[in-house]
Amino acid sequence: MVSKKVLIVYAHQSSGSFNSAAKDAAVEVLTAKGCAVEVSDLYAMTFKATATAEDITGKVKNADHFCYGEETKLAWEAGKLTADISEEQRKLTEADLVIFQFPMYWFTVPAIMKGWMDRVLTLGFAFTHEKRYSQGIFKDKKAMLSFTTGSQESMFSANGINGDMNVTLWPLQNGILHYCGFQVLAPQIFWAPSHVPSEARGTMLEGWRTRMQGLLGENPLAFTPLDCFDGEKGYQLKPEVHEKHAAKEFGLTVGIHLGKALPPNNQMKAGV
């Protein structure tokens, strides 16, 4: 049996952080299970966070009106992306599972990790107009978010001051990961580790270690398939799909909610 390859994209500056401990636990457990694990430590790599024309070697097609998406597509096709991008694309191409490990900053990923997504997931390599969402380029790969919060879990509830975490996760999990075709595994959320006793942090890590024993066999989160939308009518949900769910209590997903109540834990648990 061929060993699975795992890429951990890691964004924290401190080796003494909880995020570092979570990353190390993943490397240890997955390696022990026979996986080949590679880590992209973005701060240690001083990874460039800004998507600019400097990401292309040589001349660009239209310097006067530079379009990053189109220009990097051409550069990818010609093998003219900078070495740091090409190396991350190699890692991603080889990976069966990608884990993004990070502290949540302002309800999303840190800038250096967003820069990885902006620069590595280029047009042509990670998605095209035809190949996206359920028909995406990475549909045979799995990806997941593993992150710490500064706020306690109750603050990210449907009644909490921060709002429903399922809503917070929709742009990242649907708009980036699922958009590129990834099968998105339920996130691993470490709620406010800096505000709990060390024993509780140890329990969190043990829960992560336990989950990783069966991580590669987990079912992904549910998203509405691309063929449920009419590309000739602005990618609106097809009438027959809409009608099928008309009498149901909840919408299809957090984003495609049909004006109904959001399906509980749609972005946090598989099978709902």
From TrEMBL:
GO terms for cellular component: cytosol. Residues 4-193 form the Flavodoxin-like fold domain. Its EC number is 1.10.5.1. Belongs to the NAD(P)H dehydrogenase (quinone) family. This is Ribosyldihydronicotinamide dehydrogenase [quinone]. It comes from Gymnodraco acuticeps (Antarctic dragonfish). It is found in: Cytoplasm. It catalyses: 1-(beta-D-ribofuranosyl)-1,4-dihydronicotinamide + a quinone + H(+) = beta-nicotinamide D-riboside + a quinol. Pfam families: Flavodoxin_2 (PF02525). Coiled coil: none annotated. The keyword Cell inner membrane does not apply. It comes from the Eukaryota.
